[in-house]
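Sample intake sheet
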Amino acid sequence: MTRNIGLWIDRKKAVIVSVSEDGVVIEQIDSGMEKHVRYRGAPRPKIPYSAQYKQGDDQIDKKFMGHLNKYYGRVIARLRGARNLLILGPGEAKHELEKRIAREKLPVRLAGVETADKMTDRQIAARVKKYFEESG
């Protein structure tokens, strides 16, 4: 059974559209990430004021990247079994996920990576279905 998957992704949520002979299935994964990840609980070291902000930023970046990696891991777990994959999205998340898929050497053919603004689940499903119908 051919299973084509379209994925609309940003850093807040992913919408996965599976298209097969059995029909279309839509599922959503929320990242659980706030707009700005806040890091609390680390004691402030006694270092110069300007360097203090730099170190705090590093801790926030590490936490942010750790959270993104877990989120992308959950998304990739849902893509297993796909034959063809179309990735859509407005920001950098689509490219970050593309790199991770390549790094993990998933046995999926990347049909395309396209920029797409915010869309409803139905709009995403229609675009994915149309894309795979036109590409044969």
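Comment: The chain has a mean pLDDT of 83. The two ends are 15 Å apart (CA to CA).
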